[in-house]
Model the fold of this input.
Amino acid sequence: MTLHDVQGPVLRPGTEEYDAERTGFQLAGPHRPEVIVGAVDAADVRAAVAHAAAHRLPVAVQATGHGLPRGAAGGMLISTRRMTGITVDPAARTARVEAGVLGRDLVAAAAEHGLAPLNGSAPTVGAVSYMLGGGIGLLARTHGFAADHVRAVEVVTADGRLRTVDAGSDPDLFWALRGGRANFGVVTALEIDLLPVSRIYGGGLYFDTEHVPAVLEAYREWTGAVPDEMTSSVALVPFPDLPHLPEPLRGRHAAHVRIIYAGDAAAGRRLVAPLRAVADRLIDTVGDMPYADNATIHNEPPTPMGYHSDHALVSALTPEILAALRGTVGERIITEVRHLGGALAKPPAVPNAVGHRDAQFLVGVLSPLPPGTGVAGVRPRHAEIMDALAPWDVGRSLNFLYGDNAGEEQVRLAYEPDDHQRLAELKAVHDPDDLFRLNHHISPAS
Done:
């Protein structure tokens, strides 16, 4: 097979189409490949991988570019954004999801049958890459990682073969793909579980700047008592004074508490009452809602942007960590705490490579980067915040490693040491020439 067999576009530098295809959501440091293959199906992916192997071109894969690792210079980029097929089996409560499907489209397709996937907070993220990286979603404390609910993986491996891999056909590769992302091949589709969830008690509580210390302390205490059916997070967000934003938020560094309760509204109201009691809210949207409207909870920005980010999985949310977060108020930094534990801490029915299930919280920092600026101006401040987390730092989450913070050493921190060694050994079996290395890279064991 050659690139002449590809149905989708084959793009090279020097055209507007090339620049549009390589540029995803993350505008800081996009890939600059030698060639882009805009795959429309698994046959296109097979032809692309065969060509890359024959010409010794390292391969990167991109659906939406939200979780972009270090931008690659040269090699081949396989763009999967045209592969958007979704097939729902409502009786089996499963779906087949192609590699370019967005989270919002998967949510909408499942909702037609009163079902829900384990999607993430941003509706425009690629569903497949999110799940392969673990997937800490809106129902995570209730149902675990999204990767735990992947039943089968369709993948083109380095030999150009299209395989369907599951726990019975190849348990080792199936283990590695769920958590190892693009290190073992180009995934063209997943078969996943869907859940019988049609409504939740959810939304956002927004508190003014002066209440940030009280909100953080209340959130720390509150998370120690809530049931597994409650998944939540809190972000400290410097909202600019712009007319498209809700008037109560303009120009404020607000605390945004995000609530997803997988239970009835009456119980949800009782559980959220201690947070509402902290102070008057600027905005309060928490209530009974269709799960299909879940994107309104986090209100993630839909517009591509440049940003620099870092994070740590931590064993506790301590007063010292809260002090570091409070110290960012007034700065152009977004900080976030996601409550983990619950079902995330439990081993899945079929083991996978997702690491650090004992972490209790994910703490992250993100700085938007205006066009033409680099990370030098924000990196030192991020480092100060990360240093404050260090005594409770237990590792990283693959889906939250971006750009310069997605090198091999950081990727290693996303796994238990024995699991990383096993991944490296399986990489040596399935990709000994390291064809799939322009990603969150795991080198083959020597």
DSSP finds 13 helices and 18 strands in the chain. The CA atoms of residues 139 and 231 lie 6 Å apart. The radius of gyration is 21 Å. The chain has a mean pLDDT of 97.
